[in-house]
Design brief:
The protein has about 350 residues and is α/β, with parallel strands linked by helices. The protein has a single domain, classed as Glycoside hydrolase, family 3, N-terminal domain (TIM Barrel), CATH 3.20.20.300. The strands form two sheets. The chain has an eight-stranded parallel β-sheet with strand order 9-8-7-6-3-2-1-10. Strands 4-5 form a two-stranded antiparallel sheet. The radius of gyration is 19 Å and the shape is globular. The relative contact order is 0.13.
Length: about 350
């Protein structure tokens, strides 16, 4: 970390656009610096950050205490990927669910989707988490790429739309922000964007009839956020993947689909972005394309470098201050709706709940 780097010229506002990972199970000095001195907007947690419910409760509590003492005093988004199945950062004694494909194949799929979202939201709220980077609403097309196996509801767009919007509704009715992913659909991905940049060559009719209906349903349900995919769709933009594409983010998602809430990038350290553009340039391009929350899951130096690059672009006039305020307004609205006046649970309540499950 570079604690000497000062972003105060913009009053910490730039930091509110970022969501960062952290290394361990307790609040470390690097993460605290990002929160207290650079007004970090959110933290994403992974399995490496979770030992048990009590430890996670205390970690979330410490993160929010640090945020309350920061220059901007705004609560943090504390996010996690809790899809069920292969992508579930919360293990036992948290309730284990089989994942989207199992939900989609169940004869009582709507009931299973509701049950997953309700219990997951309850347990996330108990320990202090407030954002679930779920559901996946990609429509399966043939044999899915290995990192998507088990994560898609169905190859039927209507079924994906129905189950995805059910999860969105129940998560949010129970106090957890939902982020649908990966726009505009990774169903035809043949390689893993964690390592390489997929090219998804589909025609307009397939985009409209297969890929977009689940996202439209999520938007109609009031989903808090939509996560972009790290894939190139030549029909829409031959040069940039969705995460970096103004045509896709500002054109298709904002203007055509009318989405007014948070646009969240997938991890900007993934190979699909890092190999060709690098993380700081990826951050800048993504924000210029229209993203609101810039996700960097591992290297906190990259978070700081991205903050500096973005700040300098605003100070030079390359990016208008108005554009920054548009994203900050969306972030403030989401936090006011889900994070302000949030009733805090006690450690005893957490302990009692998880003890009763044994």
């Amino acid at each position: 970390m570079h604690p000497s780097l000062d972003l105060s010229e913009l009053g910490g506002e730039i930091g509110r656009l970022f969501m960062a990972g952290m290394p361990g199970t307790v609040l470390d000095s690097g993460t605290e610096i990002l929160i207290r001195h650079h007004c970090l907007g959110g933290v994403i947690l992974f399995s490496r950050n979770v030992e048990d419910p009590i430890q996670l409760y205390n970690l979330c509590n410490d993160l929010q205490k640090a945020a309350a003492k920061s220059a901007c005093g705004e609560p943090l988004f504390i996010a996690i990927d809790q899809e069920g199945g292969s992508v579930a950062r919360l293990k036992e004694p948290f309730t284990i669910f089989p994942g989207n494909s199992s939900v989609g194949e169940d004869p009582e799929s709507e009931t299973r989707a509701e049950e997953f979202a309700r219990i997951t939201a309850q347990e996330m709220r108990l320990v202090g988490l407030n954002m679930n980077l779920a559901p996946v609403v990609d429509v399966r097309r043939g044999m899915p790429e290995s990192h998507l196996v088990g994560r898609t509801f169905s190859d039927n767009p209507e079924k994906v739309a129905s189950l995805g919007s059910k999860v969105v509704k129940v998560l949010q009715n129970n106090g957890i922000l939902s982020v649908a992913k990966h726009f505009p659909g990774l169903g035809r991905a043949s390689i893993d964007p964690h390592y390489h940049l997929p090219i998804i060559d589909i025609v307009e009719s397939e985009m409209q009839e297969i890929n977009l209906p689940p996202f439209k349903a999520a938007i109609a349900e009031g989903v808090s956020g939509i996560m972009t995919s790290h894939a190139i769709y030549p029909m829409l933009d031959e040069m940039y993947p969705s995460t970096l594409s103004k045509r896709i983010i500002s054109g298709l998602l904002r203007k055509q689909l009318g989405f007014k809430k948070l646009i969240v990038t997938d991890d900007l350290e993934m190979g699909a972005i890092k190999k060709k553009w690098g993380v700081p340039d990826g951050i800048l391009l993504s924000f210029k394309a229209g993203a609101d929350i810039l996700l960097v899951c591992q290297d906190q130096n990259m978070v700081l470098e991205g903050m500096i690059k973005l700040r300098n672009s605003v100070l030079s006039g390359e990016i208008q201050v108005k554009r920054v305020h548009q994203s900050l307004e969306r972030i403030s609205k989401a936090k006011a709706l889900f994070l302000k006046d949030r009733k805090k649970t006690s450690e005893e309540t957490v302990r009692a709940y998880f003890s009763s499950k044994k």
